[in-house]
Amino acid sequence: MSALAGMEVVSLAVNVPGPVAAARLAEQGATVTKVEPPEGDPLSLHAPSWYARLTESQTILRLDLKSEEGKRALEELLSRADLLLTSNRPRTLERLELDFPSLHPRFPRLCQLQLIGFPPPDDDLPGHDLSFQAAAGLLVDPPRMPFTLLADLMGAERAATEATALLLHRQRTGEATCRQVALAEAAAALAAPVALGICLPEGPLGGAHPGYALYETRDGWIALAALEPRFMRMLQEALGIAPVTAERLREVFRTRPSTDWEGWGRQHGVPITRLH
């Protein structure tokens, strides 16, 4: 897609959420210049292949924004940019004169999307994905660590959406504005099903519903997602069992390998996916 073709994005955001958001904007056709500190983006050290994939279509510059030369180079970029993406804490942006009140008089066409950790009044508190998942109640089995970076990735998607909304607003009104996306709020949104009890063991999406659960097969596991009544009817008719209970399904699914059951599900229109 090229919905953002012709749009120029400058990203100062490092680690995970910013680069993922910038990559999403590039996928939509925007031209992205990624400005990194002299030591580079930490993501390039921790996950070099992911970093390379996210930035493959972008121009990467390393600038010392505390130096006069670095400031001038960034000013040149911002003079023709449509959007600035940042992941610094607000006080840092103010110190660098990269907060929106400082930028807007100099670059009236420039929109700004600020990725922050916690929402105001805690927006200057440090934190990372682990912090935001902890605050949202997503770490339900300590000391087990998260399986993935839920807050970072959800925040990145929100940032890409909000950035697009900023550009659309400017196109319609001529007004460049600024929005913030708090990663802690993104984590809280993901935690809503947990807070409501939907995904707890006794909840309908946590294993209490026999049609929505994980089952062991002869050689592995499958995910059965027959949540709707019509899927349960199809499952019952295809297997020839009544009533459909978790105990009966455990017995049946152990009789064949995972790939067989996945193919069987496709054949009968029942959502079955083997665990990879």
Question: Would you give an account of this structure?
Answer:
The structure is a single chain. The chain is α/β, with parallel strands linked by helices. The chain has 2 domains: 8-194, Rossmann fold (3-Layer(aba) Sandwich); 212-274, formyl-coa transferase, domain 3, CATH 3.30.1540. It has 12 helices and 9 strands. The chain has helices at 17-27, 43-46, 48-55, 68-79, 90-95, 100-103, 129-136, 150-173, 183-195, 229-239, 246-253, 258-268; strands at residues 8-11, 31-36, 59-62, 83-86, 111-116, 178-182, 212-216, 221-225, 272-274. The strands form 2 sheets. The protein has a 6-stranded parallel sheet with strand order 3-2-1-4-5-6, with helices on both faces. The chain has a 3-stranded antiparallel sheet with strand order 7-8-9. The two termini are 30 Å apart.
Features:
276 residues, alpha/beta, Rossmann fold, formyl-coa transferase, domain 3, 2 domains, six-stranded parallel sheet, three-stranded antiparallel sheet, 12 helices, 9 strands, 15% strand, elongated
